[in-house]
Write a structure and sequence with these properties.
The chain is α/β, with parallel strands linked by helices and 215 residues long. It has six helices and seven strands, in the order ααβαβαββββαβα. The strands form two sheets. The protein has a four-stranded parallel β-sheet with strand order 2-1-6-7.
Length: 215
C-alpha cells in the first residue's frame, strides 16, 4: 500500500512544508486519531482507502477537506487513497474556495459552468485532478460502500445519524468560514481555515508515513 512520495506542484509543496503540526492541540489529535486508525487498518490489510468528506451543503469545508486529504496522501506517499465529498444537500462549491486553493498553489480549471460549476483541481503535474462540484453524500459520483464518512460540520453530523455503506463514521468538524462572507476578513479567514484543514490532514497521513518509515 505504500509508495514513494508524489512530486506536488511547487507552491503546494511550499505550503505544506510551512505547516506547523505543533498548532494542533492534544484534544484535537484525539479527534483525528480514529481517522488515523481507519487509514492504518486499510494499509495493513492492503485495501483501498476511501474517504467521503461531508458537510451540509458541500460548498466549503468538505471541499477543502477532500482536496487536502487527497493531496496529503500523495505528499506522504500513501497510495490507493480516493477522496470524495458530499453534503446533505447539493448547492455549489463556493467561489472563494477555488480562489483560496489557487492562492495556495493548486491549478484550477472550470470545466463546466452554471449554477453548480465543475472544477478540475490539480495538485501534481502527473496525477489525475480532483473533480470538485457540489453533490449529496450518496450521489452516484461517490462510493456506495467500503468508505469512511468524515463529518466536517456539526449540522451534518447531527443531521446524518446513518450513512448507508459507510464502514466508519468519524466526526472531524471545522468552523465555517461562511460567517466571514461579505466582510473585510473573508480572504484571511478562508485561508486560515484552509491551512487548518491542510495541517490536520497532513498530520493524519504523516502518522501513517512515520509508522512505515517514509521520509
Amino acid at each position: 500500500m505504500i509508495t514513494t512520495k508524489k512530486t506536488l506542484l511547487s507552491e503546494i509543496e511550499k505550503t505544506i512544508k510551512e505547516l506547523n503540526f505543533e498548532s494542533i492541540t492534544e484534544e484535537r489529535k484525539l479527534i483525528l486519531q480514529p481517522l488515523v486508525a481507519f487509514i492504518q487498518s486499510k494499509v495493513e490489510n492492503h485495501q483501498e482507502i476511501r474517504l467521503n468528506l461531508i458537510c451540509t451543503h458541500n460548498s466549503r469545508r468538505s471541499h477543502l477537506s477532500q482536496v487536502w486529504a487527497q493531496t496529503a496522501a500523495a505528499f506522504y506517499g500513501i497510495k490507493n487513497v480516493f477522496c470524495y465529498s458530499g453534503g446533505t444537500e447539493a448547492t455549489a462549491m463556493f467561489p472563494m474556495i477555488a480562489k483560496t486553493l489557487l492562492k495556495q498553489g493548486f491549478q484550477i480549471k472550470t470545466i463546466a459552468k452554471g449554477t453548480n460549476p465543475i472544477y478540475a483541481i490539480k495538485y501534481a503535474e502527473n496525477e489525475y485532478p480532483i473533480i470538485g462540484f457540489s453533490k449529496t453524500f450518496d450521489d452516484s459520483f461517490n462510493p456506495k460502500s467500503e468508505f469512511a464518512a468524515i463529518l466536517t460540520c456539526s449540522s451534518a453530523d447531527q443531521g446524518c445519524p446513518y450513512i448507508a455503506g459507510a464502514e466508519k463514521r468519524i466526526p472531524i468538524t471545522f468552523e465555517d468560514p461562511k460567517v466571514f462572507d461579505n466582510t473585510t476578513q473573508q480572504v484571511e479567514k478562508y485561508e486560515e481555515r484552509s491551512i487548518q484543514i491542510a495541517t490536520e490532514m497532513c498530520f493524519v497521513f504523516s502518522q501513517i508515513a512515520l509508522y512505515y518509515g517514509i521520509k
